[in-house]
Amino acid sequence: MQFTITIIGRLNVGKSTLFNKLTKTKDALTNYFPGLTRDRKYGYINTEKEKILLVDTAGIVSNPKNIEIKIFKQTLTAIKEANLILFVVNNQDGLMEEDKGIARKIRIYQKKTIIVVNKSENLNKNLANIEFYSLGFKEVHSISAIYGNGISSLINKRIIPFIHQYHLSIGKYKRELLINNKENIEKYKEKNNIKIAVLGKPNVGKSTLINTFLKEERLITDSQPGTTRDSIWIPIKNSKKNFIFIDTAGVKKKNKKDDLIDKIIKKDTFKNIICAHIILIIIDAIENITDQDISLCNTVLKTGKAIIIVVNKCDLLKKKIKQEIKKNINYKLRFLKFTKIHYISAIQSKGIKKLYQSIYITYRSTKYDFNTSQLTKIMQNAIKKQEPPIVKGSRIKLKYAHPGGHNPPTIVIHGKKTKYLNQSYKRYLKNHFQSNLELIGSSINLYFKDNINPYKIKN
């Protein structure tokens, strides 16, 4: 069994900040607002000899209600998976009743636990630790996660010695780092994994869809909008490919009054768009397509990423209404005619198989290898049908085309006076390439370059 460390504690004690310090990443969202973390987030501590799985969890509350119950189930799963628990408390608040309640909850699982006294900067560590010994755990260690004080000694004097004891107790130790106990970290980091970011407004079913792909309730789902706040990377393996699904927070309508949490979430979401190969844009069938959905499609289109449209909650529609919505969506997304549109029910697993097939096809399109002769021939056929415009008494000349890159597919066209090409003709060329190359999901990028005559004498 892989050695796993789980970070727990009440709200806003610095768990995610500690996670980022230990993993030397910025994967977990952090701020002074409580409750940013909800789902389990996985990373690893990389020492000279060990790769240690680390799990960040949501803050534990005394009397969980509604969605808090689902959040606590996620944390409880992480506690059960753990070999070592880092129980984070806040020195500035002192020992709280909630801390005592958490101690009682985890004690029944008989897990090795280190009390990590955070926010202990500028204080004598012995004085900082003394009241927290009353929680009944032998090891208490003071740190300042935000400044990095005490992190090295936490690893070297507390965590590593315990792992060595663990090795001795279980015998031969398999040095594999598993992500969510399913995927090897090397495979997780491989470039040939298909990375798929799932985007959409709050409460359209993004987490439910990923749970359906996983065939387990890995992510918290709820009817309350805004359940997901942190982007979660989840490896999924099937018979053909390794996938990494990226669950993102709901993209809200832009508002001048957006609070700091919303701004952090937006920044994190769009960072993951850039990381992904394919973007699944989820639309709520009950609401039909909105201006916000169209705006999101346009935003993703500008990044050049491959797109698949997924209309969820179709099980709640009558056949006649469903046909009307299909007609409306096809019309409003006519600028994405190269993109597959799927009508599904994530909660009932309807349409998932066909969606998987589209993911394969779309990914292949992003990796399609062109050659210069093929692209030049397609360009010449387009010119025969419609010649470039005449500028200043002479016609713009397009000579040849060659590949310029992948994801998105990029074509470089060389010619004379190409800078005078109008947008209308550029769109014509782009559509001609799109239809002839039969690319699915990926919009082509065209770059134009004027050939320079090396023998021309400059004035």
Describe this structure in words.
The chain is α/β, with parallel strands linked by helices. It has 3 domains: 176 residues, 3-Layer(aba) Sandwich (Rossmann fold); 177 residues, P-loop containing nucleotide triphosphate hydrolases (Rossmann fold, 3-Layer(aba) Sandwich); 79 residues, K homology (KH) domain (GMP Synthetase, Chain A, domain 3, 2-Layer Sandwich). Helix content is 35%, strand content 22%. It is built from 13 helices and 19 strands. Strands 2-3-1-4-5-6 form a 6-stranded mixed sheet, sandwiched between helices. The protein is elongated, with a radius of gyration of 27 Å.
The structural class is alpha/beta
Give the overall shape.
elongated
Strand content: 15-25%
Q: How far is it from the N-terminal to the C-terminal residue, by CA?
A: 75 Å
Counted by DSSP, the helix tally is 13
Low-confidence stretches: 28-38, 171-190, 219-229, 256-265
User: According to CATH, what is the class of the largest domain?
Assistant: Alpha Beta
Round the mean pLDDT to the nearest integer and report it.
Answer: 78
Q: What is the assigned CATH homologous superfamily of the largest domain?
A: P-loop containing nucleotide triphosphate hydrolases
